[in-house]
Structures are given as C-alpha cells and as structure tokens.
Automatic annotation (TrEMBL):
Keywords: Cell cycle, Cell division, Cell inner membrane, Cell membrane, Membrane, Protein transport, Transmembrane, Transmembrane helix, Transport. The keyword Protein transport applies. Residues 107-214 form the MotA/TolQ/ExbB proton channel domain. The gene is tolQ. It holds the Pfam family MotA_ExbB. It is found in: Cell membrane; Membrane. This is Protein TolQ. Belongs to the exbB/tolQ family. It is a multi-pass membrane protein. GO terms for cellular component: plasma membrane. The chain crosses the membrane at residues 18-39, 130-157, 177-202. InterPro entries: ExbB/TolQ_transport, MotA_ExbB_proton_chnl, Tol-Pal_TolQ. It comes from the Bacteria. Its main location: membrane.
Length: 234
C-alpha cells in the first residue's frame, strides 16, 4: 500500500457514489455553517460594541433630542435602533395629539401606550435579526453526525460486498474500504462540532443582548413618561 493510496484525496476520489454525495452534502453544510459563523460573529460583536457606546452616550445626553442625534450615527446598535423607533413614535404621537393644547392624562396614557407598543415591536424586530440564520447551525450540529454515520454504514456495506465478491478478507483488502467509510463520520463530526459550539455561543450572546434591550426599554419608557409630564406641566 503506497502513501498515496491512504491519502484523504485518494479515498474521496475512489469512494462510492453514495459516499461522494454525502461528502459533498457535508461540504455544503460546512461552507454554509462557517459563513454563518463569520457573519453572525461580526454582527453580534458590532451590536455589542455599538450598544455599549450608545448606552454610555445616552446617559450623558441632557435631552432625548440630543440622544436621538447621537443614535442616528449608530445604526448597528440594536439599542440605538429601538430608541430611534420609540423617540419618533413619541414625537409623532405628541404632535398628533397636541398635548400642549389638551393637557389631559388621557393623551399621556395614549402616548405611553403607543410608545410601549412601538418598543415591543422594535425589540421583536431586533430579536428576529439576531437569531436569523442561527437555527441553521443547530440543524447542522444535529444532522451532520448522522449524515456522516450514514455514509460510514453505506461504505462498510460496500466494503463487505467487495470482500464477498473477491473472496479475500485480508487487511489489505478490508482496510481501504473501512477507511473510506470512516472519513464520512469524521467529516460529519468536523461539521457538527464547530456548529454546536457557535450555536451555543450565539444563543448566549443573544440572550444577553435581549436582556439589555428589555432593561433599556423600561428605562426609556420611564424617561419618556417623565418628559411628557414635564411638557404637560409647562
């Protein structure tokens, strides 16, 4: 047996059509998984960085209008985006209801209810953006080992069929076929392990971001409510 004959490329090129198909399928899973990992890692890292910066800037601003001008420059921050949505809704509702003229609690409640619904919608949109594509990592992590195992089982079946036809069960006859079959399992694990690690990592980071969105949303509602009451008392 030459060195070339035990090489990975040799085993792949000499594998059966079913094993080749499975290897191509696992290659597809691997490319998509790694693409998602790089895209989501960059997205989540930017979201955390810009949200931390926006939080710091937000609490330094004297008015919501100042914070709004700062938020417009941080479109990559989920916190900035939900703030923009809430601020625009509060401004629109205030103008519509003309609170300065009416000066009644009903208008205030209507404004706060509208802002609260807008915040909930904005948070849901941000959560959908954060979890987008992540589910594919779970699918790859759960199915790739089984796809690889299927390739292994099929390869071993083909090997034993070859042994039966050749009438020889020597190591030189059995080993190449078994090696080809086990490559499928190894490939499946190579796809599944990074996918599962990345899926757990992103889920953890998304939970943290979602918690920050909920906390910021509560603080922002209180601030907007105080701001509305100040305008009523003015």
């Amino acid at each position: 047996m030459t060195t070339e004959s035990v090489g990975l490329l040799y085993m792949l090129t000499n594998a059966g059509p079913v094993v080749k198909f499975i290897m191509l399928l696992l290659l597809f899973f691997s490319i998509i998984s790694w693409s998602i990992i790089f895209i989501k890692f960059r997205y989540v890292r930017t979201a955390f960085r810009d949200s931390a910066y926006f939080t710091e800037v937000f609490w330094q601003c004297r008015t919501l209008a100042d914070a709004f001008s700062k938020a417009k420059a941080l479109r990559s921050s989920p916190l900035a985006r939900i703030f923009i949505a809430a601020y625009m809704e509060a401004s629109r509702t205030e103008n519509k209801e003309n609170l300065a003229a009416k000066k009644n609690a009903g208008s205030t409640l209507q404004t706060m209810g509208s802002v609260n619904r807008t915040l909930n919608r904005a948070i849901n949109v941000e959560n959908r953006r954060l979890v987008q594509l992540v589910s594919f990592l779970a699918t790859a992590g759960n199915t790739a080992p089984f796809i690889g195992l299927f390739g292994t089982v099929w390869g071993i079946m083909s090997t034993f069929q070859g042994i039966g036809l050749s009438g020889s069960a020597s190591l030189a006859v059995v080993a190449p076929g078994i090696s080809e079959a086990l490559v499928a399992t190894a490939a499946g694990l190579a796809v599944a392990i990074p996918s599962v690690i990345a899926y757990n990592y992103f889920n953890d980071r998304i939970r943290v971001l979602n918690s920050e969105l909920q906390s910021f949303s509560s603080d922002l509602l209180n601030i907007i409510e105080r701001d509305v009451f100040k305008k009523l008392e003015a």
